[in-house]
Design brief:
Elements lengths: L2 H9 L1 H5 L6 E5 L2 E6 L2 H10 L8 E4 L24
């Protein structure tokens, strides 16, 4: 689990989601690596940037107070094997 990334997102959620509701954000440590419209674009770019799977978190930008996860729209913290 990427605890630092989780707490960074929670502490800076309003700033991170500003102008990006519905997008996916990639966080590594306390840095935002980018925003993407879908998961495939996200994982493709992380592979191009040679980011190691499991070293960054991907979260969907949701308004404050909206639950982080739903059955149909999961947030991921690692790159699935099929993206390699």
């Amino acid at each position: 689990m990427l605890v630092n990334e989780y707490y960074f997102y929670k502490a800076h959620q309003e700033e991170i989601i500003n102008g990006h509701i519905g997008d996916y954000v990639v966080i590594k440590g306390s840095a935002v690596l980018g925003y993407y419209k879908n998961m495939i674009e996200t994982f493709d770019d992380m592979a191009k940037k040679q980011q190691e799977p499991g070293t960054y978190a991907v979260r969907k930008c949701r308004p404050v107070g909206v639950p982080d996860m739903s059955v149909t729209d999961l947030d991921y913290t690692i790159v699935p094997a099929w993206t390699h």
